C-alpha cells in the first residue's frame, strides 16, 4: 500500500468520511499538508507515521473496551 492510500485509510478509519480536518487538527498540521499527503504530492515524515500508529493503537484499545461493554449489555 502506498503512503497516500495509507493516509486515506487511516483518516477514514479513525474519523469517517470527513476525516481531513480532524486528522490535521490531531496531528497539529495544516489541512493543506493532509491534502498533499493523500494525493501523493508530499510524503509524511517518520514522526507523522509514528503519531498515527500511536493514535490507531489508542483507538483500537478504546474500541475494544466499548465492544466488551456492548457485549455484556447484549448478553444481559
What's the short version?
The chain has 4 helices and no strands. It is mainly alpha-helical and 76 residues long.
Structural description of this entry:
This protein has helices spanning 3-15, 20-27, 31-39, 46-75. The protein is 79% helix and 0% strand. It contains four helices and no strands. The protein is an all-alpha fold. It has one domain (3-75).
Biggest beta sheet summary? none
Give the integer mean of the pLDDT values: 96
Q: What coarse outline follows from CA principal-axis ratios?
A: elongated
Please state the structural category. mainly alpha
Tally of individual domains? 1
* Helix run count: 4
DSSP strand content: under 5%
Topology, element by element:
Layout lengths: L2 H13 L4 H8 L3 H9 L6 H30 L1
Salient structural properties:
4 helices; 76 residues; mainly alpha; elongated
